[in-house]
Amino acid sequence: MRRAAIVLLSIAVASTTFAQTRRRGVVPGDGSIPTPVNTPALGASVAGLTATQLAAFNAGRGTFVRDETPNSGLGPVFNQRSCSDCHNASATGGGGNRTVTRIGTTTNGVFDALTALGGSLIQDQAIGGNGLHRFQPERVPAQATIVTRRRTTPVFGLGFVDATPDSAFIALAANEATRGDGTAGRINMTDNIRAGMKTVGKFGWKAQVPSLLQFSGDALLNEMGITNPDFPAENCPQGDCTELAFNPAPGLNDTGTRVTELLNFMMMLAAPPRGTQNAATAAGEQVFNQLGCGSCHVSTLISGSSSIAALSNQTYHPYSDFLLHDMGSLGDGIVMADSTANEMRTAPLWGLRFFNRYLHDGRATTLDAAIAAHDGQARGARDRYVALAANAKANLIAFLQSL
């Protein structure tokens, strides 16, 4: 309990300090607040890396953008040939409008990911023929009663999240519960392969992935079909494992080198810089907090200790608590780890100005539509937003577009 109190106090102090720092900034004649001169550009590495770390970051970027081939382990079924095919909006590592499909069904109230039919993730591309067999892209089977799309999210700044200890998220969830306002989030305890136990999930739309290391291996296998030490079993095309007899690259496709290289890039990729701030964005931030948006979209967190000094004990501003919240009709119906069908992880809002589609499935093309679609535990904030005067709505949107 003492540790939880210390973590929450640190979060509160960091938030206050950040706000005070912004107020003390030099304001140009037009009233805008410039981005600090030492802020890394979008897609750059975090500041303060050693020469060795910077070299590892750049090598990892090379792996992130490199197209895989069947000879290097691509497929037999996959979604894209490289990480950057999806993560490319505005800079390498950004989000994108590429969506993937998740499926499932419910039998007697229990979620079934339909793994025997290729679920829950559908790989919509295949390597084709190799002279002996022609692999086909997976398709949504008729048995799937739950079908949802998931939009590509950016990986900017995730090293800070990875370096934030589980205790911070546990404490944050406990603090939210004390409010008693029905908006508290909860952690998703998920299997951590390297730890050999369940730990706090931080990444993915359901907070179903506990670490960037596991995220790297998971993406290599499930998005590109490249087996690796933590994910050594190939995906069976449409669930038919007999087809793997014709796999042109059987066995372990990556011994861990590519996993580590992707980890290095994502771990040391800087958080997105804040956009221009002015009187409208300042007023909009007040509206954001008055509506209760900040209850889940927590502005400020502090990382813990890290072997990378540039990530250690750093204040960062993701606008997310990385917790699960019941989103009612906005839930996607998929169950992952300890989540329920209606629960979704709070989407981080940093870098929001680089998006042109919103929500987990990209259905919303405006921020107004995205906010209006909120439901469940966010229904109260949504209703307060709908009731706002036009100028207050405009200020809120200006604030969000500055993130």
In short:
The protein is an alpha+beta fold and 403 residues long. The chain contains 10 helices and 12 strands.
Give a description of the structure.
- With 403 residues, the protein is of the alpha+beta class.
- The protein folds into two domains: 2-47 and 271-321 and 348-400, no CATH class; 51-160 and 203-267, no CATH class.
- It has helices spanning 2-24, 51-65, 158-162, 166-179, 212-224, 257-267, 279-291, 367-372, 379-386, 390-400, and strands at 77-78, 96-107, 110-112, 121-122, 125-126, 146-152, 189-192, 197-200, 301-302, 315-316, 324-326, 343-345.
- Strands 2, 3, 4 and 6 form a four-stranded antiparallel β-sheet that branches. Strands 1-5 form a two-stranded antiparallel ribbon. Strands 7-8 form a two-stranded antiparallel ribbon.
- Strand 7 (189-192) and strand 8 (197-200) form a beta hairpin.
- Helix 2 (51-65) crosses helix 6 (257-267).
- The longest helix is centred in the first third of the chain and has 23 residues, at 2-24.
- The chain is globular and about 65 Å long.
- Strand content of the residues, in percent? 5-15%
Strand pairing plus helix content: what structural class? alpha+beta
Give the biggest beta sheet: 4 strands, antiparallel
Specify Rg, calculated over alpha carbons: 21 Å
| Count of DSSP-assigned helices | 10
Work out the number of β strands: 12
What oligomeric state is this?
single chain
Mean pLDDT: 92
What is the number of domains? 2
| Helix/strand order | HHEEEEEEHHEEHHHEEEEHHH
- Percent helix, as a range, is 25-40%
Question: Termini distance?
Answer: 33 Å
Shape: globular
Low-confidence regions: 1-32
